[in-house]
Amino acid sequence: MARPTIYSDELADSICEQIAEGKSLRSICLDEDMPAKSTVFAWLADPGRDDFRTKYAHAREAQADVLVDEMTDIADDGSNDWMEQRNSDGTVTGWKENGEVLRRSALRISARQWIAEKLRPKKYGSKVALTDGDGGPLVVQVLKLSESNADNPASK
Question: Residue 82: what are its φ and ψ, rounded to 5°?
């Protein structure tokens, strides 16, 4: 069976629901019952599909929230952080940190944080504060040239 290429509200809603649940567009489009990514991008570029673009944008915002929730779950899951250490005859000699699992968890959190910052920069992006050289608030002064100076090229 061929992949769908004709736009339908049901298909668009399914795509947006899955994105809002945290799935990537790539993984959604791997399903044979779903259109190819290029088809979805064509729908998004179609001027007559404002409703789909709006739903898609809201789904991406919801996706960022899901990713942030997942970060907490990943950070709180310590189930494989430690593993039994055994000697050559198989006797348990203690426990050791499972560095591979810890590094993978850190990577998973970092990837989700980066994506959430890009999807919702106002909510999850880094806050930038402009300060003066001493760390105080930045003061911006707008100077207005007098009309006599504005016409004089030498004063510029």
Answer: -125, 145
What are the CA-CA distances from residue 88 to residues 23, 94, 100 (Å)?
A: 44, 13, 22
pTM of the model: 0.71
R_g of the chain, CA atoms, integer Å: 26
Report the C-alpha gap between 100 and 96 in whole angstroms: 12
How far is Cα of residue 13 from the mean position of the Cα atoms in its chain?
21
Q: How confident is the model at residue 141 (pLDDT cuts 50, 70, 90)?
A: confident
Run of H or E including 11: helix 9-20
For the chain, what is the largest distance between any 2 Cα atoms, rounded to a whole number of angstroms? 94
- Rounded to whole angstroms, the Cα distance separating 34 from 40 reads 9
Residue with tokens 């799935």: 23
Specify whether the CB–CB gap between 13 and 20 falls below 8 A.
Answer: no
Asked which of 52-56, 104-108, 110-114, 140-144 is least confident by mean pLDDT, the reply is: 140-144
Instruction: Calculate the CA 133 to chain-centre distance.
Output: 33
As a whole number, the mean pLDDT across the chain is 91
